[in-house]
Amino acid sequence: MATPATSSIPTPTPSSLSNRISTSTDANPVAATTHQVLHSLQHQHQWTSLQIHEIDTKFSIPLISGIPPHRVYTHPDEQLYMVERGLREEDVELDRMFVLPTVQGQAWSLERMAAVFDALPEPAEENEAEAEVEEQTEASEAVDADKAAKLAEYYEYRAKARRTGEWGSKRLLLAVIDKGMGGDGTVVYYVVQEGTVKPRQN
Amino acid sequence: MADLDEDAINNSTTGGAHADIDLSDETQDFRMLNNLSFLDTANLSLPKRGEKDFEPNPTVFQADILSASRQAMHNALAYPRLHHPKNLLIGVYAPNGPAPPAISKSLDTVAEEAPAEKAAEKAAPVSIGAQVPADACVYVTKAKGPFFKSLGQADRWSRVWLLPEEALYLLERGTLDIRWPRCAVGDGDEDDIEDSGLPMSLQAAYACLMGRGGLTMERYSVFTGLRRLGYAVLRAPGWSESDEEKVSQAAAQSVARQGPGLAGIFSRFMGWLCDGAPTTAVGPVAGLGFHHSYDRIYRKLSLIPFYDPVTSASPSPQPRLPYAVVWHVYKPSTSFRKSAPPDPDFKIAVINARTTTIPTVSQIWTLLESTPLNPPRPNSQLYVRLKNGYRNVILAVVDQGVVSYLKIADAAFGKEKLYAQRPSGGNKNRGPPRHKFKKR
Amino acid sequence: MNSSPDLPIPISYIAGNYFVFSVDAATFLRREHHICGVLAGTLPQVPQQNVFTGLPLELMPEEARLLVEKGVGCIVDEVNFQKQGMKSLMEEDRKKYLKELESQGLESKQLQIRRKERLREEYLKKKNEKAAAKAKKAEEKQDTSAAPSGEDSVFLFDDRQPSTSPSHVSSRRSSVLGASDAMGITPAISHPLLPQQPPAEHHLPLPEVPSSYPLFAHLHSKGYFLSPGLRFGCQYMAYPGDPLRFHSHFLAVAAEWDEQLDLMTIISGGRLGTGVKKGFLIGGADKSRDDSGVAGSNVRAFSIEWAGM
């Protein structure tokens, strides 16, 4: 029943996503998934400083990291702490966040998820990187000494809370692409955290 | 945090806001029970949802409230089952099932000179009264009160025999005092089921009655849950696999009674004659010729055959447990005679969530086919008709004492000719309110 | 209520289910061991409703197993224990038991009479007070607040012991009561007719549990109260405190460590949880790690919420 292709119909221009995938030099078999999520983060959600990481486990799983335009997740206790000190989310430096790109129908298991979490940097390692950021902020916002002091107090407490797991421990963003039957390429995002982390109430 | 006074029930404002919340869904604060003025039947209404907290905090305040709630729960659970001497209802447990009373048994043997005493004893369940089920195991000598309208069956000696679920439910709600029979406490013969005078504890009653005659905890949870709400609940023919013959008989009856009938077949034939078989091989689908109405065109366009629940005639296989109807349920408003129960208002299959997987289509199919045809009222609204379906059954899925009810209906979308619907009386009566579906 | 029953608490195994019949045991398990079970019975004082249910307490096999592993409970073959226990009753024990029930029945009768008396007295008192207040109000023409309505309240669960009521009434009545006036009693448990601790021959081995048991044990060890979750679309509901007073935090589902998961499970679970302000929790035992004999100690679990983007 196939109708012969007529040469008169012009080939549509590839989408920017198609271009990205076809020009990528990524050799990973799931590279298309990774790039589609990266594309969604960059253009739909305005993330910046996006990077692709290849994590070293028995499974070959790529990870993306980047900085979101605004906070994606705040632990309920952290939120309470901030509210009590009059700190707003905008006052706090944005964190680099890890994103796990997956596609609907892909085989997953607890074992794989655990391997990904094991590969995430420990909270202590993150803190060193943040220490630099912290000083910068203090310098730039020195106008409001009171707020700066509160921020400093917050950063200090956060470092501790992350080590103890009080404000939740390791977390990542699970990105799932809808590519099944009739899938439209929508990407959905879920926050996944290690252990029992109480739910947000808003 | 609402305190007790705020949560007081019988408050005129409690009506609307909480109407769609099933309080039995979640553990409720037993302190609310203290406010339940259940003796005052005129004002009887459900307690308001107790306020709950998000998480524990180290305050004394919270600890005190929790402690008060637990105390209230403890008190409620410790409430004794007392029987006023004036209206004491006594039942006796008969571990070996229905049997004639001791006195009449000896009389019968003398008078009728039974051919073989032992044979007579074996056949006892049949001889004591046709209505008494073989699974009955508690008898009440002086049955009185409203409960026996829908519970138990009387024998020739006007003793009322109760099935295990009926007896256990009556004991549990503090209505019946079940006694150990003499044989169970080491008195008398093996089959001496006279009252020993020793009352059975709730614990003993569960040990003796649960698991008897196919009574599982799941089935019992459904039974008591519905009884507590006022429904009459009877065992259905599908109760045990050995009852299969009864099921097939019931099904055969229902087919004979409610099948399509000659008129149905005739109208189908007429329909076929008028419209003719649409041929799509040549020419347009709607056919050539004159079309005076859209209906005719739509009929021509309905090429895809659809399933009609009314005309499926082939006898279906027997439903197999657990996907078989085990309870027949009657609304409190249904006039009900236990000797000749009418068609049930609801048919329920009980499923143990822990041991059963999601049913296959054929299991659901067989289950639905085993129920009598119950077509929707033709003058009801479209969505009501679709929801009711032509057959329907309720699945009670029980997860460790927690029951969820799901209704399965054989909806006939193909029979609802949307094009034939005439908008009557403007928008108001046209179709159903849409939000009903949106909400879900 | 704060009494501690003798350990191990006998858990009745009847027709494949685990039950606790003693109110003290039920309260103790809830308070001290965060085991709630499901109240499966009818409350005799309010039998026509499903919001508040009563004993017996039906335990999940997981709960029964956990209690046995902790040495808090033991499983009893209740059917055989009852059968044999009742058969081998001594005549004297029976008589003694019946006597005891009778005196309890008489006591209940007296209590009931006293309660009626007290209600009547209080009602009359209130009535008089009201009348007096009304008269006063009429006199002063000022808004003296009327006595709060409380006369309809029920005293069944009142902490105030009836002994505080006028003693002369009860003593007068009790002398009139005979054995035929005693209330009949259906006891909740078979003790003291049968021994509280059934002999070892009626004990059963550890309950069989589903493969989700490690997750159950893990969450329980972290202080969560767990209940069956089917009604909410999961395996267990996990509460941060007693469900009497707290909302649940998690809809929990167990998986085998290497079990293939459809990502749709995670998404639908996350969506379901977020919709009711709860977290979706999925977890299982890491088989590569030893549980060193403690069920659930090698479990890893992940909390999932919709990211809102």
- Characterize the overall form of chain A: globular
Radius of gyration of chain B equals 28 Å
Q: What gap, in angstroms, lies between the N and C termini of chain B? A: 30 Å
Q: CATH fold name of the largest domain in chain B, please?
A: Trna Endonuclease, Chain: A, domain 1
Q: Percent helix among the residues of chain B?
A: 25-40%
Topology summary:
The complex is a heterotrimer of chains A (202), B (440) and C (309).
Chain A lengths: L15 H8 L7 H14 L3 E9 L3 E8 L8 H9 L12 E7 L3 E2 L1 H10 L3 H18 L4 H20 L6 E7 L9 E8 L8
Parallel strand pairs in A: 3-5
Antiparallel strand pairs in A: 1-2, 2-3, 5-6
Helix pairs in contact in A: 5-6
Chain B lengths: L30 H5 L24 H19 L2 E3 L6 E4 L8 H11 L4 H6 L1 H4 L10 E3 L12 E2 L5 E3 L1 H9 L4 E5 L13 E5 L2 H8 L7 H12 L3 E4 L8 H15 L2 H15 L18 H8 L25 E4 L15 E7 L8 H9 L12 H7 L3 E8 L2 E8 L25 H4 L2
Parallel strand pairs in B: 2-6, 10-11
Antiparallel strand pairs in B: 2-3, 3-5, 4-5, 6-7, 8-9, 9-10, 11-12
Helix pairs in contact in B: 6-7
Chain C lengths: L8 E6 L2 E4 L2 H11 L4 E4 L12 E6 L1 H9 L3 E5 H10 L3 H50 L26 H8 L9 E3 L16 E2 L8 H9 L3 E4 L7 E4 L10 E5 L6 E2 H13 L3 E7 L13 E8 L3
Parallel strand pairs in C: 1-5, 10-12
Antiparallel strand pairs in C: 1-2, 2-4, 3-4, 5-7, 8-9, 9-10, 12-13
Word description of this protein:
The complex is a heterotrimer of chains A (202), B (440) and C (309). Chain A is an alpha+beta fold and 202 residues long. Chain A has a domain at 29-120 and 168-193: Trna Endonuclease, Chain: A, domain 1, CATH 3.40.1350.10. Chain A has six helices and six strands. In chain A, strands 1-2-3-5-6 form a five-stranded mixed sheet, with helices on both faces. In chain A, α5 packs antiparallel against α6 (145-164). Residues 128-134 of chain A have low confidence and may be disordered. Chain B has helices at residues 31-35, 60-78, 102-112, 117-122, 124-127, 164-172, 202-209, 217-228, 244-258, 261-275, 294-301, 361-369, 382-388, 435-438; strands at 81-83, 90-93, 138-140, 153-154, 160-162, 177-181, 195-199, 232-235, 327-330, 346-352, 392-399, 402-409. In chain B, β11 (392-399) and β12 form a beta hairpin. Chain C is α+β, with helices and mostly antiparallel strands. Chain C has three domains: 1-89 and 193-208, MutS, DNA mismatch repair protein, domain I (3-Layer(aba) Sandwich); 91-181, no CATH class; 210-309, Trna Endonuclease, Chain: A, domain 1, CATH 3.40.1350. Chain C has seven helices and 13 strands. A six-stranded mixed sheet of chain C has the order 3-4-2-1-5-7. The longest helix of chain C is centred in the middle third of the chain and has 50 residues, at 91-140. Mean pLDDT of chain C is 85; it is low at 143-174. Classes of the chains: A alpha+beta (202), B alpha+beta (440), C alpha+beta (309). β1 of chain B pairs antiparallel with β6 of chain C.
